[in-house]
From TrEMBL:
SMART domains: RNAse_Pc. It comes from the Eukaryota. PANTHER family: ANGIOGENIN-2, RIBONUCLEASE. The keyword Secreted applies. InterPro entries: RNaseA, RNaseA-like_dom_sf, RNaseA_AS, RNaseA_domain. One of its GO terms (molecular function) is RNA nuclease activity. GO terms for cellular component: extracellular region. This is ANG2. Keywords: Endonuclease, Hydrolase, Nuclease, Secreted.
């Protein structure tokens, strides 16, 4: 039997990180418009039922992971971490109506600070309702 040194805790952390990437990470988006949101939400299996809001973070995954330590992150509140630098994001908001497919989304582009929850040095949750204060 092959022993990879993976403990149940490590596997669970990896599942959380992989879920984060599936739901929230797109390194190089095309368009960042309503069509982008409609396509990505369906491609990432968030349309059965239609998810109300989801944010995709763009850029380098290492920069996102660095929020979990002091390289690019700082403690925020309730165990969350806030990025020290802004990220390009696209937030997809369901246009309303039925929660059954076909789902239609409106895209909102921004360049902003993000807030995440980390477990074992990996992002596992993006705080969707974080709105950075205006300077």
């Amino acid at each position: 039997m092959l022993d990879l040194g993976l403990t149940p805790q490590t596997l669970a952390q990896n599942d959380g990180y992989m879920g984060f990437l599936r739901k929230h990470y797109d390194p190089s988006p095309a368009g960042r418009n309503d069509r982008y949101c409609n396509t990505m939400m369906e491609r990432r299996n968030m349309t059965r039922p239609c998810k109300d809001t989801n944010t995709f973070v763009h850029g380098n995954s290492d920069d996102i992971r660095a929020i979990c330590d002091d390289r690019n992150g700082e403690p925020y509140r309730d165990g969350l971490r806030r990025s020290r630098s802004p990220f390009q994001v696209t937030t997809c908001k369901h246009k309303g109506g039925s929660t059954r497919p076909p789902c239609r989304y409106r895209a909102f582009k921004a360049n902003r600070i993000i807030v995440i929850r980390c477990r074992g040095g990996f992002p596992v949750h993006l705080e969707e309702n974080f709105i950075p204060p205006r300077p």
